[in-house]
Amino acid sequence: MFRLASILYSLIGTTLAGTAMIAVLTAGFDTLVPIVAAAAIGAVVAVPVTWYVTKAIYQA
Length: 60
Fold this sequence. Notes:
88% of the residues lie in helices and 0% in strands. It is mainly alpha-helical.
C-alpha cells in the first residue's frame, strides 16, 4: 500500500501544489513568500488526499 501511495503522492502532490501556486499568482501575489507558502500548503494537503485515494483503490 505504501508503494502505491508513494506513486500517487508524486502525482497528487504536484497537482495540488501547482494549482495552489496558480491560484496565488492569479490573485496577484507575485513575491516569493506567498508562492512558496502555497506550494507547501498544496504538498501538505496532498497527504490526506493521497491516503483517501489509496484506500479507495484498495477497497475497489
